[in-house]
Amino acid sequence: MENQYCKVGSVSPMNNGSNEISLLESQYQNFMDKASSTKYSDSKLAEFFELKATKIQKIIQTLAH
Question: Which of 5, 18, 47, 60 gives the lowest tally of CB atoms within 10 Å of its CB?
């Protein structure tokens, strides 16, 4: 049997372009929206979404400079 290679879960590097920053900004906003909508029903999940948003925000700041 021959080896088969699959690209499931593969990632491509992000360059320093505005396209990547706009994608990250939309992901950041998406996580913040999810955090605010789940804040009162599930605080642990809201905390998780806020943590993800914070990490994305740091990446955006790094790419912007």
Answer: 5
